[in-house]
Design brief:
This protein is of the alpha+beta class. Helices cover 34% and strands 31% of the residues. Strand 8 and strand 9 form a beta hairpin.
């Protein structure tokens, strides 16, 4: 069974082309026009062992908002499509990542119910070329189209780059754990309802 998706989203503000293979080896090719977003997506792919290609262009002369939002929406849609009816997956995954002085945690549930809770105190208005407000927006947008519950929290830390990087590494590892096929399930859906 191939668990992959290729999606294109085109609006008057952005064009996003994305390919995802859940059972990859962590290979990535990322060009969004927002360098720090590329850096964060690389961590999701590498630490989640997903093969991920993203080519995006957007109205960066305005700001990065539309590009970040649409990349997150397409990435979530790709996870949703690649998981199909979600039969046999572990469904839930969580991971804590230390990065020097920072500790971040992300928990994911592919429940079919989009929800996101983000708890991070940032020191400044941006990290790299990315406004820190867009990081929470990325997580929320991803949760909507992935049809997943996502909780992301930085427990402590001092450096905003470390806070963001630990969050995205934790996201990759939590997604990897949640999307694994559990052989004990025999293809059954991990829900008392029998449907996600």
């Amino acid at each position: 069974m191939t668990r992959s998706a290729t999606i294109t989203r085109q609006t008057t503000e952005t064009t996003v082309q994305l390919s995802l293979d859940l059972d990859g080896s962590g290979q990535y090719d990322l060009t969004t026009g927002v360098s720090f977003l590329d850096h964060m997506l690389a961590h999701v792919a590498m630490h989640g062992l997903f093969d991920l290609t993203v080519q995006a262009s957007g109205d960066l002369e305005v700001d990065a908002h539309h590009t970040v939002e649409d990349v997150a929406l397409v990435l979530g849609e790709a996870f949703d499509q690649a998981l199909g009816d979600r039969q046999g997956i572990v469904r839930m995954g969580s991971f804590e990542v230390p990065m020097d002085e920072t500790l971040a945690a992300v928990a994911v549930d592919f429940s079919g119910r989009p929800y996101a809770m983000i708890d991070v105190d940032w020191s400044g208005p941006s990290v790299g070329s990315l406004a820190v407000t867009l990081i929470a927006h990325f997580f929320r947008s991803f949760a909507v189209t992935a049809r997943a519950t996502v909780h992301a929290r930085v427990l402590y830390g001092e450096d905003d780059h470390h806070r963001a990087e630990a969050l995205f590494k934790a996201l990759g590892r939590a997604l990897d754990a949640a999307t694994q096929l559990d052989p004990r399930r025999g293809g059954r859906i991990a829900s008392t309802k029998g449907k996600l």
